[in-house]
Amino acid sequence: MQASQPLIIAIVGATAVGKTAFSLDLAQALNGEIVSVDSRLVYRGMDLGTAKPTPAEQALVKHHLIDVVKPDQDYSLATYQAAAYAAIASIVQRAKLPILVGGTGQYMAALLEGWSIPEVAPNYELRARYEQQAALEGHAALHQQLQAIDPEAAATIDATNVRRVIRALEVFAVTGQQISQLQRRQPPAYRILTLDLERPRDELYARIDQRVEIMVQQGLIAEVWGLIRQGYGWELPAMSGLGYAEFRPLWQGQQSATACISQLKFNTHRFARKQGAWFRRLPNRVSLDARHPNLLQQVQMLLAAMPAPEAIHIDH
């Protein structure tokens, strides 16, 4: 059948490439609202370490799915996906343009590819056993276990991403089914344009390093200490992420602040290198040079060249 499909624009790219600034310009030019696609911006009180858009930036354009839960609350991919789809529908209903912005590739793929996410509640006892196994035998051994039961999932999950490997093992242990089979896909009924911002690697690394320095100047270490003093432990997913975990050795008196800051820069470089693998798979993806002086005009040309909604066919 034919149907008029609303448009959504997704802005992706490595951390520090310039997504936030560009998304604000684009949203203001195209009457849009921003849906954050970032697994860490959902946490309240975690502002500097996550490079959360500032209150002033959020005041310029309405943002969704920022500051949703406390750092110790569970917030799964399934929960995020449902909330994001609801936000997108609300934006469309108000005749505005949904602009999805973020660097969490798994979350973006789940939205744009329409993943069916297994409804399997966390089994903390099982997870603890897998975590102990990873600590004793190494993450590679755990990944080999996944390879044996679900080669397709193992091919898409990095062995170093122990949390995702454990989740795949957990789903199989609880349901007897492979997570790769449970994650069926039904793309959402939207026209999609994915804008992948890119910069030369050396320039990106320099921007990352500069941003880390600014975060520290603005009080990143104080933010981390404040969270710990509020009772949020290092073991929480929120606290074990980039921008926070690097300061654990400082808290424990094992490293200097300078060493921890250097480690944060190094880890962020590594994270940026890995992000692209997710972005390259996204639908209707167009690479854009983030340094281009007329990015907005480029996007308007891309939109003008897209098929009219009536020409889009949906198979049911």
Task: Give the overall average pLDDT.
Answer: 92
SS elements, strand count: 6
How many alpha or pi helices?
14
Q: Give the helices and strands as they follow along the chain.
A: EHEHEHEHHHHHHEHHHHEH
Approximately what portion of the residues adopt beta-strand conformation? 5-15%
Largest sheet report? 6 strands, parallel
Rg, nearest Å: 20 Å
Give me the secondary-structure category: alpha/beta
Q: Level of helix content?
A: 40-55%
CATH architecture of the largest domain: 3-Layer(aba) Sandwich
The order of strands across the largest sheet is: 3-2-4-1-5-6
CATH topology of the largest domain: Rossmann fold
Question: Can you describe this structure?
Answer:
- Its cofactor is Mg(2+).
- With 316 residues, this protein is α/β, with parallel strands linked by helices.
- The chain folds into 2 domains: 237 residues, Rossmann fold, CATH 3.40.50.300; 59 residues, Histone, subunit A, CATH 1.10.20.140.
- Helix content is 50%, strand content 10%.
- It has a 6-stranded parallel sheet, sandwiched between helices.
- The termini are close together.
What's this model, at a glance?
One of its GO terms (biological process) is tRNA modification. With 316 residues, the chain is of the alpha/beta class.
Offer a few descriptive terms.
Rossmann fold; disordered C terminus; 6 strands; six-stranded parallel β-sheet; globular; 14 helices; 316 residues; alpha/beta; Histone, subunit A; 2 domains; single chain
Reconstruct the topology from this structure.
Elements: E1 7-13, H1 19-29, E2 32-36, H2 55-60, E3 63-64, H3 77-93, E4 97-101, H4 105-112, H5 124-137, H6 139-149, H7 151-156, H8 162-175, H9 179-182, E5 191-198, H10 201-218, H11 220-229, H12 248-251, H13 257-279, E6 285-289, H14 295-305
